[in-house]
Specification:
This protein is of the alpha+beta class. It contains 6 helices and 14 strands. Strands 1, 2, 3, 4, 5, 6, 7 and 8 form an 8-stranded antiparallel sheet that branches. A hairpin with a 7-residue loop joins strand 12 and strand 13. The longest helix has 18 residues, at 233-250. The relative contact order is 0.17.
Length: 252
């Protein structure tokens, strides 16, 4: 588990939300010592606390882009715990170098001591430590037609990579890329794309519904299913400003 996480720049995180239904989003996987971890700036304090409180989580590696030797497609389930780092000391000394390597946008905020002093609000983190069971192999997503399916059966969170095809109004037929049998339960279907190698644009899309057999009855469609266009200078400034304001507002 450690080596694939160590050389992966992107991953997918699934968890059971407060609603009792699966949720999912793409993440930057890190290693805190020997354990997989995520490190959210305080702008995302609500999200980080929800993930840490979830009854089940899963970390999935499905995208072979921007990976190194020893990477393989896999998923592992378990639980999460939260480590608050309001002064940023743990993040700066143990996780920052890895984040700068894997997530290029962070370099504009923290790639030198001068930048770290200027953007001091970016270093405090909510660190989610993932306690995962043995990994299970899956098939990688190598085309735009496959997505990550998360299904909650009330006891276990099941994750697989699937292909989808229309099967009528608000229905999607699901085909496991690994040939696994279909599952029943509330589900979330995550797709995402990003610009390589800068990761400046990273667009996720989530389809929600209920799986019965190999058909997903969709209750919520995403607004877009393609990579967002390049940002203008004004949009980049606004994104930076909004991140700073949210971090400052949520810091203890």
């Amino acid at each position: 588990l450690r080596q694939p996480v160590r050389v992966a720049s992107v991953a997918e995180l699934s968890w059971v939300a407060r609603t009792g239904r699966p949720d999912a989003l793409p993440v930057t996987p890190l290693l805190l010592g020997e354990q997989p971890a995520l490190a959210y700036p305080y702008a995302y304090a609500g999200l980080a606390r929800e993930i840490a409180a979830a009854p089940a989580i899963a970390l999935t590696l499905s995208d072979p882009r921007m990976t190194g030797a020893g990477w393989r497609a896999m998923t592992a389930t378990g639980h999460a715990s939260l480590v608050e780092d309001p002064d940023g000391e743990i993040f700066r000394t143990r996780l920052l170098r890895e984040e700068l390597r894997k997530h290029p946008p962070s370099r504009t905020l923290a790639d030198s001591l001068m930048l770290q002093r200027e953007h001091w609000w970016f270093l405090p983190r909510l660190i989610i430590v993932l306690d995962l069971g043995p990994p299970m192999s899956i098939e990688p997503r190598v085309d735009g037609e496959s997505q990550v399916l998360s299904v909650w059966d009330g006891d276990l969170l099941h994750v697989d990579t699937v292909r989808t095809s229309d099967s009528g109004a608000d229905l999607l037929k699901l085909t496991s890329k690994s040939g696994r049998p279909p599952l029943d339960g509330p589900a979330a279907l995550l797709g995402h794309d990003f610009s390589v190698p800068d990761l400046e644009r990273w667009t996720p899309w989530l389809t929600r519904g209920t799986v019965a057999g190999d058909v997903l009855s969709v209750t919520e469609w995403p607004e877009r299913t393609t990579l967002e266009p390049s940002l203008s200078l004004r949009q980049r400034y606004r994104r930076h400003r909004d991140l700073e304001r949210a971090c400052r507002a949520n810091l203890p």
